[in-house]
Amino acid sequence: MAEPLLRIEALHAGYGEVRVLWGVDAQVDEGNIVCIVGSNGAGKTTLLRTISGIVRATSGRILFRGEDITRLSADQILARGIAHVPEARRLFRGLSVKDNLILGAYLRRDTAAIRRDLDFVYTLFPILRERQSQDATTMSGGEQQMCAIGRGIMSRPKLLMIDELSLGLAPRLVERLSQTLIEINKAGLAILIVEQDVMTAFEIAEHGFVIETGRVEMRGTTKVLAENPAIRQAYLGM
Prior knowledge:
Elements: E1 6-15, E2 18-28, E3 33-37, H1 44-51, E4 57-64, E5 67-68, H2 74-80, E6 82-85, H3 97-103, H4 111-124, H5 126-130, H6 141-153, E7 159-163, H7 171-186, E8 190-195, H8 198-204, E9 207-212, E10 215-221, H9 222-226, H10 229-234
Parallel strand pairs: 3-8, 3-9, 6-7, 7-8
Antiparallel strand pairs: 1-2, 1-4, 4-5, 9-10
Helix pairs in contact: 3-6
């Protein structure tokens, strides 16, 4: 069996004395879309922050492409190929859309390839080309999410992690972004999505993990998870 792109083993993490993650095991295989779902405060965002080096693991391991990255800095993890699109987008106020996108490539030195990737992002999200000189933080929430995803793509990652894709967005726009992510994935990019809207997550992803109180309670294909009575009652209102 092939080594997973990302493997998380017995991961514990938190903030100071407050433990949030308790022995989390999860994985993302090459070329897959995987979702992490759960109620608000379950530890989903903390898991992404720990993977990307923003929060330090207290124990356990994070392996990426077979390398232990548990103790690496956020810059080192980005350089290895993991890009993190944070909750609420976190674009840079006062900088244009184009400058925000280019910042995603700040570790790269391949100028010609950066220009090609910028064109690729503009092809995915044509509105960003139209707004490229506009302060990114003055756009609508959906346009800002496009810019945040585009900024992540500009690092040319092997794994793109997105925290709360649908937060504050209209259903039609969420559907459009979801289709775009599926297109990106078909081009070979693995995606890990944290999402409170379980229905949206299951429509995008092939495999999923359900986290409650910092522990993985269920895992499997999203098709099987969607038929689980406990999930249907707790998250889908059925």
